[in-house]
C-alpha cells in the first residue's frame, strides 16, 4: 500500500516486482568488484516465475545470512544510510515477494519465486 497526500493507493503488482528486481540486484551491483560479473536470469514455467541474481562478489558470510532480511541490518557495519543504503532493501524485497505468495533467498544466487498469475 502506498500513501500520497493522506490517500492510500495500491501499487500495481508489476510496479512492485520492478521494485523487487531493483532492490534485489542493487546490493549485488554495489558489492561486486568492477572487474566482477553480475548475472540476472528470469524464467517461468506453468506454476511460477523465477528471477535469480548471481555475482562474482565476496558473497554473504554464512553467519550473516539469518539477518539479511532484518530491517536496518547491514553486513558492513561501517556503512550508514549516507554511505550505502538504509538497511531496508532486502526486507522490502521479502515483504513484497511474500505478499504475492512467493519466496526469496539471500544466498547466491539470490532467488525470487512468485506463483504464476500473480506476477502481472
pLDDT averaged residue by residue = 76
The level 1 CATH classification is: Alpha Beta
**What's the structural domain tally?**
1
Largest sheet: 4 strands, antiparallel
Structural class: alpha+beta
| Contiguous runs where pLDDT drops below 50 for at least 5 residues | 1-10
What's the CATH H-level homologous superfamily?
Histidine kinase-like ATPase, C-terminal domain
**Regarding quaternary structure, how should these chains be classified?**
single chain
Shape: globular
Approximate strand percentage: 25-35%
Query: Roughly how many Å apart are the termini?
Result: 17 Å
- The CATH topology label is Heat Shock Protein 90
> What helical percentage do the residues reach?
25-40%
- Counted beta strands: 6
Number of helices: 3
Q: In a nutshell, what does this entry contain?
A:
With 120 residues, the protein is an alpha+beta fold.
What does this structure look like?
The protein is of the alpha+beta class and 120 residues long. The chain has a single domain (12-115), classed as Histidine kinase-like ATPase, C-terminal domain (Heat Shock Protein 90, 2-Layer Sandwich), CATH 3.30.565. 28% of the residues lie in helices and 25% in strands. It contains three helices and six strands. It has helices spanning 13-31, 81-84, 89-99; strands at 2-4, 7-9, 38-44, 48-55, 103-105, 110-115. The strands form two sheets. The protein has a four-stranded antiparallel β-sheet. It has a two-stranded antiparallel sheet with strand order 1-2. The longest helix is centred in the first third of the chain and has 19 residues, at 13-31.
Amino acid at each position: 500500500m502506498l500513501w500520497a497526500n493522506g490517500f492510500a493507493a495500491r501499487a500495481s503488482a508489476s510496479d512492485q516486482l520492478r521494485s523487487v528486481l531493483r532492490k534485489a540486484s542493487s546490493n549485488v551491483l554495489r558489492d561486486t568488484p568492477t572487474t566482477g560479473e553480475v548475472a540476472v536470469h528470469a524464467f517461468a514455467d506453468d506454476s511460477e516465475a523465477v528471477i535469480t541474481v548471481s555475482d562474482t562478489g565476496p558473497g554473504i558470510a554464512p553467519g550473516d545470512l539469518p539477518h539479511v532480511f532484518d530491517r536496518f541490518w547491514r553486513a558492513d557495519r561501517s556503512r550508514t544510510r549516507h554511505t550505502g543504503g538504509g538497511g531496508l532493501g532486502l526486507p522490502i524485497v521479502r515483504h513484497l515477494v511474500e505478499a504475492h505468495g512467493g519466496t526469496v533467498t539471500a544466498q547466491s544466487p539470490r532467488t525470487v519465486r512468485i506463483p504464476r498469475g500473480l506476477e502481472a
